[in-house]
Amino acid sequence: MTLFSGRRLAWIIAGLVLAVVLWWCRAPILRAFGGFLIRADAPCHGDAMYVLGGAALERAIAAETLYREGTAPVVIFTGGVMPEVLRINGVHRTEAAVCRNAAVLAGLPPDRAELLEIGTSTREEAFAVRDQALARGYDTVVVVTTEFHTRRVGNVFRETLEPVGIVVRVRAAYSHRYSAARWWQSEDGMLMVNNEYMKLVYYAITY
Hints:
CATH superfamily of the domain at 48-177: HUPs
Radius of gyration: 21 Å
Shape: globular
Number of helices: 8
Distance between the termini: 56 Å
Structural class: alpha/beta
Mean pLDDT: 89
């Protein structure tokens, strides 16, 4: 056996060993990969709770639960996007309105549920929340979003609101379609984590 072929065999064996180790440890590695995206705050209190557009059912349930726990005296639903599936059926409602309706059906008092139908992205929603919070004199706001969005949303909102003196706290809404602890076992979970990392990269490059 030549020296070259010996080294090649060693690399092959090392590669196989590494593959076996990664496969054996895949669960904790993948769990950590998803866990990096999660950076939610502990239970807290704010002047207002802002529920971001999208994932209406899970965020509506979270909003109602957090309101009941005394997180904030008013819940404001944001987002100006109109879901395509609704427009196709002749229903012209924003994500904010859809989420508010779901939260009210879940038990949120209607007189405590407001709309801020502005924003087609996290960044746009952050600016809209900043402007309203300043106008109303809010010192602390609680932002509700999907669990795997919390790191990126927290970064965007803190960069936008904290320079003007508004404290941001981020709370997580939990998905009913996949488990955050085993997200790779669900197509929805895999799409969520993949898309969220793409958004993290996009925001880091663009802003």
